[in-house]
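2 proteins. here.
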Amino acid sequence: SDQIMRKKLDTRFPAARIKKIMQADEDVGKIAMAVPVLVSKALELFLQDLCDRTYDITLQRGAKTMSALHLKHCIHSFSMFDFLKDVVSKVPDYGHSDATGDDRTAPKRRKSAIDEYHDSDDELKKSRMEMSHVHASSSGRGRGRGRG
């Protein structure tokens, strides 16, 4: 048991980033070092499960490429993913034409859903950056005038 605790977990998601996300919530106080590492591992296992289930749906529909629509169907098929329904609500349903229609339109749908997610993520980062730089001077914003 002690060996498990001492062994550094090989995580795929940066613990420092997870800690920042957790600390963004003002209700969160101090965070023990092990917590972001464990959250990172939990996130990895969660995503693996979500991807495995989505892949099964992709195969059932005869498609070769996993699409945002397959992810949406997975989220609607398993109640454990109910909390993600709002996230995929804007992914359009293009009927149920299995391999041909899904594969041809998948990149456009997937890109738009991902772009939408990143846009909201960028806005969140921007607002956090603005809040953290309220008292900062203008140095560090570039090389000065006339360059750009």
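next one coming up
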Amino acid sequence: MEKQKYRLSGFISLVMLVIWSQFMSAPFVQPTESDADLILFYRLTGEKSGSVWTYNVATGEETRLTPDLHNARNWSPDGSRILISEALRDDGFPDARLLVMDGDGQNHRLLTDSYDVYPGTAAWSTDGTRIIFWGIDLQVVVGQPRWAIYDVPVTGSPTRRLTKHTARNGGLAIAPDGSQIIFTQDGRLYKLPANGGEPTTLDVPIRIGLLSWSPDGTMLAGTGSGSLGTGIYVFGPDGSNLRLLDTDGLAGHVSWSPDSKEILFITDSAGGWSPTLAIVNIETNRLDTYHVGEGALEPLAAITRAVWSPDGTQIALTGRYRENNPYDSHTSIYMVDQEVTYLQRLTDSELNDSVVQWRPRP
């Protein structure tokens, strides 16, 4: 039975390789090196799968970079390459392997083997030479702890396991100077040398989920709960100076401003659809909230994700248009200014578009 499964997976992989080869020869328009403001996004082009795209803010041009069954992960630190994941079938099955490609969709390279590790959360090393990711070890018997943190060079060399196996995965953040990794496991925080070694526990009395490191490397932010309450916590890389930001208990996906002074987030809500975009100032604790259906966000019914532009003057977000049923209409990419005084619709494909990341500036 196992041999039949592997033969089938191998056949599917061969089919996907043929499809990819045909796609790479297709006459798609490619972005140039002068395209500074590119937004990476994912478009749901099938029932349960999609493809990777970029949007040029200056020209309004959309560029398709992959065929279906691919998902966008993130840009490399210098904005020259993109980490993507690939599924082997169109039924919502988890992404099977990681690849890197140039920012124009060319020169793809396979990083992980779907027979060995299924990838989860992944991040680039600061120097852009490696990918650090949570993965499921497929060589471990089902029912045993199988999650671990792995390291793989972008040259496609064999993966290296950095941590012991655990029952579940968690958050992952790499220091801007590339020296260490902070990760969560079962709600607890751990610190790990970037080149591997024994992880040490950070004495932080909260349960943390997703993590994000400030660009200046002085703080981390994460959504969690503890004796101070539930919301967004910030703390030093050693676990010191822990404090709960005044976010009215709101907690969702967080994005640091480029100057490390503000955190952009959406409110946490059932089903992932949020009614509120929020910005909290780290120094003054000032909280500004912007609600869909009001002000500049009046045309929107819900928001799912928001990210800063590289210069901190713009925000790209995924939203649903208010005139449609918020749970039965397509999502588009929108842009607002830092003060959220205007709203500009960027994509309108009548498919589901989801913003991933603004292209970093070298």
